[in-house]
Here is the input.
Amino acid sequence: MTPKTTYEFIGENKRKTVLIVLLFPLLFAALAYVTILLITPFIMEAEHGGALYNQTTVAYANYFSAFIIPAAVGLLVVWLVISYFTGGNMILSSAGAVEITRANYPDIYNLADSVAIAAGLPTPKIYLMQDSSLNAFATGRDPEHAAIALTSGIIEKLNRQELETVIGHEMAHIGNRDIRLMVIVVSGIAFFTFAGWMILRFGRVRAKKQAALIIFAAGMVCLIYGYLVAPLIRLALSRRREFQADATSALLTRNPAALASALEKISGNSIVEELKEHEAVSAMCIEDPLHKQGIFSFLSGMYATHPPAEARIAALREMDGKI
Here is the structure.
């Protein structure tokens, strides 16, 4: 199979962005409608003493859906539009990242400048996460509004060549427009999880039986979508983007061996404490920043946002000497 060019990846990501923007509201509307159909008999039983599915029940569900679903989808669309312009900053804030200056970190900025020039991109803003682990991610809506966040650990523990290739990896995500796609996905997941918990929290008030049921169902729909359905959409975004970013970094820096060495160090110490409560951001990092523990740890491979580090390192080793 012929490897895809950067321009083909950019075009593919643009199409995926449109698809994701459509999938989020459409799948949510479908899940919401099914839930309304399921709880309608209980509402009718509370009001009319009947709970059998019939034409009246379906009509009652359609009546509810005509008001509830458009309102929810409308809120989601507004959230996504706002997130398109502000999502990058929100993600940086959630990661505890603080912008650093060229005056304080000239070496980092010089590396970013050289890689940006090689990639034909504007130099992104650089942010620092105070964490001894080794990790990094890029975010923003386009190359002109992009940022790269690095942990203090990755700056301290990688040598200059290794750090340059990590910046090259993140610059590849910027050039390929992976960052825009992931901002939309992360923002969409955040919308549903936040909305679900807020609905359940503020729904703990005295209310009629049917109103309490509707509130509970609405909260659970948002949580199920945010924790189960939306992450599956995220997984539909091929993990090949990490291989592509690795390869692009190797081409930009002419040093695949340095990136392979960097990934070996990163894979052994990539857990970022600040991101424990922000699982959706994990897909944006150069390596998974989360602990894989607990009763559901056996699902980590299925839900993995990154290909195995060993496979990425092997691919880079194979490239070494061919560039």
Q: What stands out?
A: Confidence is low (pLDDT under 50) at residues 293-302. The chain is about 65% helix and 5% strand. The first helix runs from residue 6 to 48.
